[in-house]
Design a protein that fits this description.
Layout (H helix, E strand, L loop, with lengths): L2 H19 L3 E6 L6 H8 L4 H4 L1 E6 L2 E6 L2 E8 L6 H21 L8 E7 L7 H11 L4 E6 L5 H11 L6 E4 L5 E2 L5 E2 L4 H11 L5 H7 L4 H23 L3 E2 L7 H15 L5 H12 L7 H10 L12 E2 L1 H27 L6 H18 L8
Parallel strand pairs: 1-4, 1-5, 5-6, 6-7
Antiparallel strand pairs: 2-3, 3-4, 8-9, 10-11
Helix pairs in contact: 1-10, 9-10, 9-13, 10-13, 11-14, 13-14
Protein backbone atom coordinates (compact mmCIF):
# COMPACT_ATOMS: atom_id res chain seq x y z
CA UNK A 1 0.00 0.00 0.00
CA UNK A 2 1.17 3.52 -0.80
CA UNK A 3 2.39 5.22 2.42
CA UNK A 4 -0.09 8.07 1.96
CA UNK A 5 -3.01 5.66 1.47
CA UNK A 6 -1.92 3.87 4.62
CA UNK A 7 -1.96 7.17 6.54
CA UNK A 8 -5.44 7.94 5.26
CA UNK A 9 -6.68 4.47 6.28
CA UNK A 10 -5.20 4.96 9.74
CA UNK A 11 -6.89 8.36 10.00
CA UNK A 12 -10.31 6.99 9.04
CA UNK A 13 -9.97 4.07 11.47
CA UNK A 14 -9.03 6.40 14.31
CA UNK A 15 -12.04 8.62 13.59
CA UNK A 16 -14.29 5.56 13.81
CA UNK A 17 -12.62 4.53 17.08
CA UNK A 18 -13.15 8.00 18.55
CA UNK A 19 -16.82 7.99 17.53
CA UNK A 20 -17.33 4.56 19.11
CA UNK A 21 -15.75 5.71 22.39
CA UNK A 22 -18.00 8.74 22.70
CA UNK A 23 -20.89 8.58 25.16
CA UNK A 24 -24.37 9.84 24.29
CA UNK A 25 -26.17 12.94 25.53
CA UNK A 26 -29.88 12.28 26.16
CA UNK A 27 -32.41 15.11 26.18
CA UNK A 28 -36.16 15.04 26.73
CA UNK A 29 -38.17 17.84 25.08
CA UNK A 30 -41.63 18.31 26.57
CA UNK A 31 -44.31 20.70 25.37
CA UNK A 32 -47.63 21.06 23.61
CA UNK A 33 -48.03 20.44 19.90
CA UNK A 34 -47.20 23.61 17.97
CA UNK A 35 -44.97 25.04 20.66
CA UNK A 36 -41.99 24.84 18.31
CA UNK A 37 -40.10 21.81 19.62
CA UNK A 38 -38.96 20.60 16.20
CA UNK A 39 -37.80 24.08 15.21
CA UNK A 40 -35.89 24.37 18.47
CA UNK A 41 -34.24 20.96 18.08
CA UNK A 42 -33.21 21.60 14.49
CA UNK A 43 -31.91 25.06 15.34
CA UNK A 44 -29.69 23.83 18.17
CA UNK A 45 -28.44 20.50 16.87
CA UNK A 46 -26.78 19.48 13.64
CA UNK A 47 -28.27 17.16 11.01
CA UNK A 48 -31.86 18.47 11.39
CA UNK A 49 -32.60 15.69 13.86
CA UNK A 50 -36.31 16.39 14.21
CA UNK A 51 -36.77 16.04 10.43
CA UNK A 52 -34.23 13.45 9.35
CA UNK A 53 -33.64 11.39 12.50
CA UNK A 54 -35.25 8.04 13.13
CA UNK A 55 -38.23 8.36 15.46
CA UNK A 56 -38.89 5.18 17.43
CA UNK A 57 -42.11 4.98 19.51
CA UNK A 58 -41.33 4.39 23.18
CA UNK A 59 -44.89 4.76 24.44
CA UNK A 60 -48.12 6.06 22.91
CA UNK A 61 -47.11 9.66 23.60
CA UNK A 62 -43.32 9.46 23.65
CA UNK A 63 -40.87 8.82 20.84
CA UNK A 64 -37.09 8.54 20.73
CA UNK A 65 -35.22 10.36 17.95
CA UNK A 66 -31.71 9.28 16.95
CA UNK A 67 -29.49 9.59 13.90
CA UNK A 68 -26.38 7.63 12.99
CA UNK A 69 -23.23 9.64 13.60
CA UNK A 70 -24.86 12.07 16.05
CA UNK A 71 -24.19 11.15 19.72
CA UNK A 72 -27.53 12.48 20.90
CA UNK A 73 -30.91 10.99 21.77
CA UNK A 74 -33.99 13.19 21.85
CA UNK A 75 -37.13 12.04 23.69
CA UNK A 76 -40.07 13.96 22.25
CA UNK A 77 -43.49 14.11 23.91
CA UNK A 78 -46.84 14.72 22.25
CA UNK A 79 -50.43 15.21 23.28
CA UNK A 80 -50.01 17.63 26.20
CA UNK A 81 -52.74 19.87 24.79
CA UNK A 82 -55.34 17.09 25.22
CA UNK A 83 -57.72 16.58 28.15
CA UNK A 84 -56.67 16.08 31.74
CA UNK A 85 -56.98 12.29 31.62
CA UNK A 86 -54.58 12.10 28.65
CA UNK A 87 -52.20 14.50 30.40
CA UNK A 88 -52.03 12.22 33.41
CA UNK A 89 -51.31 9.27 31.12
CA UNK A 90 -48.49 11.17 29.43
CA UNK A 91 -47.02 12.23 32.76
CA UNK A 92 -47.00 8.62 33.96
CA UNK A 93 -45.39 7.44 30.69
CA UNK A 94 -42.60 9.99 31.04
CA UNK A 95 -41.93 9.20 34.70
CA UNK A 96 -42.02 5.45 34.05
CA UNK A 97 -39.51 5.83 31.22
CA UNK A 98 -37.19 7.95 33.37
CA UNK A 99 -37.35 5.38 36.19
CA UNK A 100 -36.85 2.45 33.80
CA UNK A 101 -33.68 3.99 32.35
CA UNK A 102 -32.37 4.72 35.84
CA UNK A 103 -33.01 1.11 36.89
CA UNK A 104 -31.07 -0.19 33.89
CA UNK A 105 -28.08 1.66 35.35
CA UNK A 106 -26.54 2.38 31.95
CA UNK A 107 -25.17 5.92 31.98
CA UNK A 108 -25.34 6.11 28.20
CA UNK A 109 -29.13 5.83 28.39
CA UNK A 110 -29.97 8.07 31.35
CA UNK A 111 -32.08 11.09 30.44
CA UNK A 112 -29.75 13.92 31.41
CA UNK A 113 -31.93 16.98 30.94
CA UNK A 114 -35.51 18.09 30.24
CA UNK A 115 -36.36 21.13 28.17
CA UNK A 116 -39.90 22.05 29.11
CA UNK A 117 -41.15 24.23 26.25
CA UNK A 118 -43.87 26.86 26.63
CA UNK A 119 -44.98 29.13 23.80
CA UNK A 120 -44.38 32.68 25.00
CA UNK A 121 -47.30 33.92 22.94
CA UNK A 122 -49.67 31.89 25.14
CA UNK A 123 -48.72 34.33 27.95
CA UNK A 124 -49.23 31.74 30.67
CA UNK A 125 -48.02 28.60 32.37
CA UNK A 126 -50.81 26.20 33.30
CA UNK A 127 -51.29 24.58 36.71
CA UNK A 128 -50.64 21.09 35.36
CA UNK A 129 -47.35 22.33 33.87
CA UNK A 130 -46.23 23.69 37.23
CA UNK A 131 -47.04 20.29 38.75
CA UNK A 132 -45.18 18.44 35.99
CA UNK A 133 -42.09 20.64 36.22
CA UNK A 134 -41.92 20.21 39.98
CA UNK A 135 -42.29 16.43 39.68
CA UNK A 136 -39.76 16.07 36.87
CA UNK A 137 -37.22 18.33 38.55
CA UNK A 138 -37.12 16.00 41.55
CA UNK A 139 -35.53 13.41 39.24
CA UNK A 140 -33.80 15.29 36.41
CA UNK A 141 -32.57 18.87 35.78
CA UNK A 142 -35.24 20.95 34.06
CA UNK A 143 -34.92 24.12 32.01
CA UNK A 144 -38.05 26.00 30.95
CA UNK A 145 -37.64 27.17 27.36
CA UNK A 146 -39.91 30.02 26.32
CA UNK A 147 -40.26 29.54 22.57
CA UNK A 148 -41.33 32.18 20.03
CA UNK A 149 -40.16 34.95 22.33
CA UNK A 150 -40.80 38.30 20.68
CA UNK A 151 -42.69 41.42 21.66
CA UNK A 152 -42.99 42.41 25.32
CA UNK A 153 -45.17 39.66 26.74
CA UNK A 154 -42.45 37.01 26.96
CA UNK A 155 -40.55 39.10 29.52
CA UNK A 156 -43.65 39.25 31.72
CA UNK A 157 -44.09 35.48 31.45
CA UNK A 158 -40.40 34.90 32.16
CA UNK A 159 -40.59 37.01 35.31
CA UNK A 160 -43.77 35.27 36.43
CA UNK A 161 -42.19 31.81 36.10
CA UNK A 162 -39.04 32.93 37.91
CA UNK A 163 -41.16 34.36 40.73
CA UNK A 164 -42.82 30.96 41.20
CA UNK A 165 -39.47 29.71 42.55
CA UNK A 166 -39.83 26.35 40.87
CA UNK A 167 -36.90 23.89 41.24
CA UNK A 168 -35.53 24.82 37.81
CA UNK A 169 -32.03 25.15 36.44
CA UNK A 170 -33.20 28.22 34.58
CA UNK A 171 -35.74 29.94 32.34
CA UNK A 172 -34.51 30.74 28.84
CA UNK A 173 -36.52 32.76 26.31
CA UNK A 174 -35.54 31.94 22.72
CA UNK A 175 -36.43 32.86 19.19
CA UNK A 176 -35.13 29.88 17.28
CA UNK A 177 -35.48 31.39 13.79
CA UNK A 178 -35.39 34.96 12.61
CA UNK A 179 -38.87 36.43 12.32
CA UNK A 180 -39.87 38.45 9.28
CA UNK A 181 -41.65 41.59 10.45
CA UNK A 182 -41.79 43.27 7.04
CA UNK A 183 -40.01 43.21 3.71
CA UNK A 184 -37.42 45.57 5.16
CA UNK A 185 -36.98 44.17 8.66
CA UNK A 186 -36.40 40.77 10.23
CA UNK A 187 -36.16 40.12 13.94
CA UNK A 188 -32.98 38.07 14.49
CA UNK A 189 -33.00 34.82 16.42
CA UNK A 190 -31.68 34.94 19.98
CA UNK A 191 -31.26 32.97 23.18
CA UNK A 192 -29.98 29.70 21.71
CA UNK A 193 -26.37 30.16 22.82
CA UNK A 194 -27.50 30.90 26.37
CA UNK A 195 -29.69 27.78 26.31
CA UNK A 196 -26.82 25.63 25.01
CA UNK A 197 -24.38 26.96 27.60
CA UNK A 198 -26.79 26.46 30.50
CA UNK A 199 -27.61 22.93 29.33
CA UNK A 200 -23.93 22.07 29.04
CA UNK A 201 -23.27 23.32 32.57
CA UNK A 202 -26.07 21.10 33.91
CA UNK A 203 -25.05 17.90 32.11
CA UNK A 204 -22.89 15.23 33.75
CA UNK A 205 -19.28 15.33 32.60
CA UNK A 206 -19.64 12.03 30.73
CA UNK A 207 -22.15 13.68 28.37
CA UNK A 208 -20.12 16.85 27.70
CA UNK A 209 -18.20 15.64 24.66
CA UNK A 210 -21.33 14.27 23.01
CA UNK A 211 -23.28 17.48 23.58
CA UNK A 212 -20.45 19.63 22.22
CA UNK A 213 -20.32 17.40 19.16
CA UNK A 214 -24.08 17.46 18.55
CA UNK A 215 -24.80 21.16 19.10
CA UNK A 216 -24.07 23.68 16.37
CA UNK A 217 -24.72 26.97 18.16
CA UNK A 218 -21.57 27.56 20.21
CA UNK A 219 -18.60 26.95 17.93
CA UNK A 220 -16.29 28.60 20.47
CA UNK A 221 -17.11 25.85 22.95
CA UNK A 222 -16.12 23.28 20.34
CA UNK A 223 -12.83 25.14 19.89
CA UNK A 224 -12.16 25.24 23.64
CA UNK A 225 -12.76 21.50 23.96
CA UNK A 226 -10.59 20.78 20.92
CA UNK A 227 -7.73 22.91 22.21
CA UNK A 228 -7.82 21.06 25.54
CA UNK A 229 -7.78 17.76 23.64
CA UNK A 230 -4.47 18.68 21.99
CA UNK A 231 -2.57 18.63 25.28
CA UNK A 232 -2.32 14.85 25.94
CA UNK A 233 -0.93 14.35 22.44
CA UNK A 234 1.64 17.10 22.96
CA UNK A 235 2.79 15.25 26.08
CA UNK A 236 2.99 11.99 24.14
CA UNK A 237 4.99 13.66 21.37
CA UNK A 238 7.41 15.09 23.92
CA UNK A 239 7.99 11.60 25.30
CA UNK A 240 8.51 10.19 21.81
CA UNK A 241 11.04 12.89 20.96
CA UNK A 242 12.78 12.84 24.32
CA UNK A 243 15.41 10.30 23.19
CA UNK A 244 15.66 12.29 20.72
CA UNK A 245 14.53 10.96 17.32
CA UNK A 246 16.70 11.16 14.20
CA UNK A 247 14.96 12.68 11.18
CA UNK A 248 14.63 9.26 9.60
CA UNK A 249 12.57 8.13 12.59
CA UNK A 250 10.33 11.19 12.59
CA UNK A 251 7.48 9.12 11.19
CA UNK A 252 7.10 7.68 14.69
CA UNK A 253 5.34 10.94 15.52
CA UNK A 254 2.80 10.53 12.75
CA UNK A 255 0.49 7.98 14.51
CA UNK A 256 0.28 10.29 17.51
CA UNK A 257 -0.60 13.22 15.30
CA UNK A 258 -3.17 11.21 13.34
CA UNK A 259 -4.83 10.07 16.57
CA UNK A 260 -4.92 13.70 17.70
CA UNK A 261 -6.49 14.93 14.46
CA UNK A 262 -9.08 12.14 14.60
CA UNK A 263 -10.13 13.15 18.10
CA UNK A 264 -10.33 16.82 17.10
CA UNK A 265 -12.43 15.95 14.04
CA UNK A 266 -14.95 14.12 16.23
CA UNK A 267 -15.11 16.99 18.74
CA UNK A 268 -16.14 19.42 16.02
CA UNK A 269 -18.79 16.98 14.83
CA UNK A 270 -18.89 17.95 11.18
CA UNK A 271 -19.57 15.05 8.80
CA UNK A 272 -16.72 15.42 6.31
CA UNK A 273 -16.53 13.60 3.01
CA UNK A 274 -13.64 11.20 2.45
CA UNK A 275 -12.21 13.61 -0.11
CA UNK A 276 -12.06 16.36 2.52
CA UNK A 277 -10.45 14.00 5.03
CA UNK A 278 -7.89 13.18 2.35
CA UNK A 279 -7.30 16.91 1.90
CA UNK A 280 -6.73 17.23 5.64
CA UNK A 281 -3.93 14.68 5.51
CA UNK A 282 -2.53 16.35 2.42
CA UNK A 283 -2.65 19.78 3.98
CA UNK A 284 -1.19 18.80 7.33
CA UNK A 285 1.33 16.11 6.50
CA UNK A 286 1.95 16.58 2.79
CA UNK A 287 2.63 13.84 0.28
CA UNK A 288 6.11 14.83 -0.84
CA UNK A 289 8.69 12.10 -0.26
CA UNK A 290 6.01 9.66 0.76
CA UNK A 291 8.46 6.81 1.17
CA UNK A 292 10.09 8.70 4.01
CA UNK A 293 7.23 10.95 5.02
CA UNK A 294 8.51 11.67 8.50
CA UNK A 295 11.78 13.03 7.15
CA UNK A 296 9.94 15.26 4.69
CA UNK A 297 7.69 16.69 7.39
CA UNK A 298 10.50 17.55 9.73
CA UNK A 299 12.82 18.88 7.05
CA UNK A 300 10.13 21.36 6.03
CA UNK A 301 9.05 22.31 9.54
CA UNK A 302 12.50 22.89 10.93
CA UNK A 303 12.95 25.80 8.57
CA UNK A 304 10.23 27.53 10.56
CA UNK A 305 11.72 26.82 13.98
CA UNK A 306 14.19 29.55 14.99
CA UNK A 307 17.49 28.35 16.41
CA UNK A 308 17.09 24.74 15.33
CA UNK A 309 19.04 24.89 12.11
CA UNK A 310 18.76 22.85 8.93
CA UNK A 311 17.51 19.32 8.58
CA UNK A 312 20.90 17.84 7.75
CA UNK A 313 22.24 15.75 10.58
CA UNK A 314 19.65 17.07 13.00
CA UNK A 315 17.51 15.41 15.60
CA UNK A 316 14.06 15.91 17.02
CA UNK A 317 14.18 16.76 20.69
CA UNK A 318 11.24 16.26 22.99
CA UNK A 319 10.54 20.00 22.96
CA UNK A 320 10.66 20.18 19.17
CA UNK A 321 8.38 17.15 18.77
CA UNK A 322 5.92 18.68 21.20
CA UNK A 323 6.06 22.06 19.44
CA UNK A 324 5.37 20.52 16.04
CA UNK A 325 2.49 18.44 17.38
CA UNK A 326 0.97 21.39 19.23
CA UNK A 327 1.19 23.50 16.07
CA UNK A 328 -0.54 20.75 14.10
CA UNK A 329 -3.34 20.54 16.65
CA UNK A 330 -3.99 24.22 17.23
CA UNK A 331 -3.73 25.01 13.51
CA UNK A 332 -6.17 22.23 12.71
CA UNK A 333 -8.62 23.58 15.27
CA UNK A 334 -8.47 27.06 13.76
CA UNK A 335 -9.08 25.60 10.31
CA UNK A 336 -12.00 23.51 11.58
CA UNK A 337 -13.66 26.57 13.11
CA UNK A 338 -13.77 28.11 9.65
CA UNK A 339 -14.99 24.86 8.11
CA UNK A 340 -17.73 24.44 10.74
CA UNK A 341 -19.02 27.98 10.30
CA UNK A 342 -19.18 27.54 6.54
CA UNK A 343 -20.89 24.17 6.90
CA UNK A 344 -23.60 25.52 9.22
CA UNK A 345 -24.12 28.44 6.85
CA UNK A 346 -24.89 25.92 4.11
CA UNK A 347 -21.60 26.51 2.31
CA UNK A 348 -19.27 23.75 1.14
CA UNK A 349 -15.49 23.60 1.04
CA UNK A 350 -13.41 22.05 -1.74
CA UNK A 351 -10.43 19.77 -1.32
CA UNK A 352 -8.14 22.48 -2.71
CA UNK A 353 -9.49 25.05 -0.26
CA UNK A 354 -9.01 22.61 2.63
CA UNK A 355 -5.37 21.97 1.72
CA UNK A 356 -4.70 25.70 1.44
CA UNK A 357 -6.51 26.39 4.71
CA UNK A 358 -4.54 23.74 6.61
CA UNK A 359 -1.22 24.98 5.32
CA UNK A 360 -2.12 28.60 6.03
CA UNK A 361 -3.22 28.00 9.62
CA UNK A 362 -0.21 25.78 10.30
CA UNK A 363 2.28 28.35 9.05
CA UNK A 364 0.51 31.07 11.04
CA UNK A 365 0.66 28.92 14.17
CA UNK A 366 4.35 28.15 13.71
CA UNK A 367 5.21 31.81 13.13
CA UNK A 368 3.51 33.03 16.29
CA UNK A 369 4.69 30.07 18.35
CA UNK A 370 2.83 28.17 21.03
CA UNK A 371 1.28 30.38 23.67
CA UNK A 372 1.63 29.09 27.23
CA UNK A 373 -2.08 29.62 27.76
CA UNK A 374 -2.76 27.15 24.96
CA UNK A 375 -0.89 24.48 26.88
CA UNK A 376 -2.80 24.96 30.12
Amino acid sequence: MDPFDDLLSQFLRKIEEEEEKMHTANLMVVGKTGVGKSTLINSVFREDLADTGIGTPVTQHLRKITKAGVPLTIYDSKGLELDREVQQTIKKEILDEIDLLIQKNNKDHFIHMIWYCINSQSRRIEDFEIDWITTFAAKIPVIVVLTQSFGKDYKTLEKHIRDLNLPLKGVRPVLAHELEISDEYKLPSFGLKELVDLTFDCLPEAAHAAFINAQKINVERKLEAANRAVLPFVTAAFAEGFNPLPFADAALLVPTQLAMLARLTVIFGVPLKKSILTAIITGVLGTGGATAIGRTIVANLFKLLPGVGTAAGGVISGTTAATITAAFGFAYNQAMVKVVKRFYAGESITEKEMVALMRQTFHEQMKKGIDREQLQ
